[in-house]
Amino acid sequence: IGEWITPGTRFPLEMASDADVGSNSQLTYQLTSNPSFSLAVEEIPGGKKQPLLVLENPLDREKQSSFELVLTAVDGGEPVKSGTLQVRINVTDANDNPPVFGKRLYEARVAENLPAGSLVLRVQATDADTGSNGRVFYSFGNVPNIVSALFTVNSESGEVRTAGPLDFEDKSEYSFVLVAKDGGGLTDHCEVQIDVTDENDNTPEIIILSLFSPVPEDASVGTVVALLNVDDADSGENGEVSCELSGEAPLSIVASSGGSYKVLVLAKALDREEAAFHELVLRASDGGDPARTGTARIRVTVLDANDNAPVFSQAEYTVRVPEDVPLGSVLVTVMATDEDEGLNGDVKYS
């Protein structure tokens, strides 16, 4: 009997037969007491009685899927004789139960850069019906293209797996709806929340915003030489960057209040005559494990200042000449040098 059958419906049962005659063959029927069923008897042509099983209350296969009753036929003789018939009633399923997810919200945390096909989570919906009515299939709801490009859902197992590389720096969380649908078309929905955790997959980047070169050698200590932007796309410790200068350049790093901008300033006085340029390497390392390091090379040229006086090769020149030396005769050649360059080092005599 289908669980959708309405109360009052009658089902014929097998009639009993008795080989006696007269009152010895007059049969009456009895049925095991059950609130869901009753017994009715209908007179049929020939004086026989047809036992009928009457449905009294609505059936629910999910509460009780079968019934065991006993139909007894009793004759009118003395002593009474009877016969019994076992009646087994199987309740067939109607698709009267939708799938039901175990949770309204499924959450997962996964690391970025997982290989395609990695398991993210598994959803599960149950259906109290049987057969195709109780078989559940899973699918995406109305989701953006980016979700269907990065994730897949197995229609039978409910497993959600990665279909493409996840990038924390591109998007750190995804929220979408999954649908469970049974064979009869009934559905349920759940929400999936996936948080992507950061991996140290980005190297610190150093951008030289401005470089003031050449720098006058008489520039004062603290003069700004370069403005830099140091950035790491990772988050947390993976994105925390520390900087250092290699070499013995007369420069130091000053961090801005935000931390992403760095300023190179003069740490001590310059001397072009000692070094006409300075080459240094700025190294930026993040706090990941293992750490990633980015570098930038900077060349600073020193501009000459007139900080050196000409110096004669001798402090005193002594010359002996005859008194009749002709006019215009060269008496002595003096020489002075200047360590500066350009006009600052161009020596004239008087």
Automatic annotation (TrEMBL):
Occurrences of domain Cadherin (ranges): 16-101, 102-206, 215-312, 313-350
Protein's gene: Pcdhgb5_4
Superkingdom: Eukaryota
Matches recorded under PANTHER family: CADHERIN-87A (PTHR24028), PROTOCADHERIN GAMMA-B3-RELATED (PTHR24028:SF73)
Keyword Repeat tagged: yes
Cell compartment(s), UniProt: Cell membrane
Alphabetized Gene3D superfamilies for the sequence: Cadherins
Gene Ontology molecular function terms on file: calcium ion binding
InterPro entries documented for this protein: Cadherin-like_dom, Cadherin-like_sf, Cadherin_CS, Protocadherin/Cadherin-CA
Membrane disposition: Single-pass type I membrane protein
Biological processes per GO annotation: homophilic cell adhesion via plasma membrane adhesion molecules
Organism field: Scytalopus superciliaris
Listed name of the protein: PCDGH protein
Keyword Transcription regulation: no
Keyword line: Calcium, Cell adhesion, Cell membrane, Glycoprotein, Membrane, Repeat, Signal, Transmembrane, Transmembrane helix
One GO CC term on file: plasma membrane
Pfam families (alphabetical): Cadherin
